[in-house]
Amino acid sequence: MVNINDVLDGHVALEIECLDRIYLNGYVPILQVGGQVIRFMREHLGKNIPSPAILEKLGTRFRAAVRDFADVHQIPIVQFKKDDRKIDVMQRFLSAQEKSGISGVVAIGVAQEYQNVFAATQRDKGAGVPWYSFTKADRRVTCYYFYLWDDDFGAGFIKVCAYFPYPVKVWVNGHEWAKRQASKVGLGFTSLSNGFKSCDDPAALQRICDTLTSSTIQDFFDRWMDRLPLPLDDYDRQFGYWWELSMRQIETSRTLVFDAPRHARSFFESLITDNLDIGRPETVELLFTGHGPHHLGHPIVNRTPYKTKIVTADTQVSLNVFFKHSRVKQYLKDGRALRVETVINSPRDLQCLRRLEHLPELQQKAALLLLPWVIGRGVRVGGVRG
Question: pTM score, two decimals?
Answer without folding.
Answer: 0.83
